[in-house]
């Protein structure tokens, strides 16, 4: 059986979550979606009526919030102060505000510490995010950086949401570009591949093919 950590980083809309869950299931590993933690922190900020651009107030609010995520590969449990927010974290309101919240260094320090604790408690784990290979788990067994062409990412996201009009797909592409730009240019833990990451471009691969590829890499890395 696989023992260790697989990190899965990359921009939005590359299929990281589906691929990550698929890899975790195949390896018999736990699964940690760190984006869900930043999204849950954003719910806490919005519920407190705080401006996501006010870094000090954001840091204070998130420090006082109890953010819990499950690591069972088959389910998604996300709670803020005991309230189930698994559906709300996917709302457009949260998606708009999450990059600003996750750029606050104190928020990152708090959630990274929590992520390391969760990973430390697991024998085998797949961890998905933006800075997992570079910052959170620099000694991971296998680091994967998943990319895809921007048009492909917008098309896939549109498919998931059931959107078909060109204008709607353009909006999605613009939102993906905005978040990538924000995540890649922030000072603290910007999105970039770790020096020792394997870059996998999923533009022309099926989800199953990407999962197969990463499972093979993980087994070879043992
Ligand atoms: O992966 P997901 O799209 O759910 O992540 C939402 C946002 O959370 C990202 O756009 C990014 O701003 C932030 N994030 C981060 N570091 C991580 C995971 C997510 O900054 N490790």
UniProtKB/TrEMBL annotation:
State the gene name recorded for this protein.
cmk
Q: What is this protein called?
A: Cytidylate kinase
What are its E.C. numbers? 2.7.4.25
- Identify one Gene Ontology CC term for this UniProt entry: cytosol
One of its Pfam families is: Cytidylate_kin
Report the main location listed first in the record. Answer: cytoplasm
Gene3D superfamilies, per the entry: P-loop containing nucleotide triphosphate hydrolases
InterPro entries hit by this protein: Cytidylate_kin, Cytidylate_kinase_dom, P-loop_NTPase
Annotated residues that bind ATP are located at 10-18
Residues of the region (Disordered) are 1-19
Q: Which domain of life is it from?
A: Bacteria
Q: What are the GO BP annotations of this UniProt entry?
A: nucleobase-containing small molecule interconversion; pyrimidine nucleotide metabolic process
* Location relative to the cell: Cytoplasm
Which Gene Ontology terms cover its molecular function?
A: ATP binding; CMP kinase activity; dCMP kinase activity
The organism named in the record is Blastococcus aggregatus
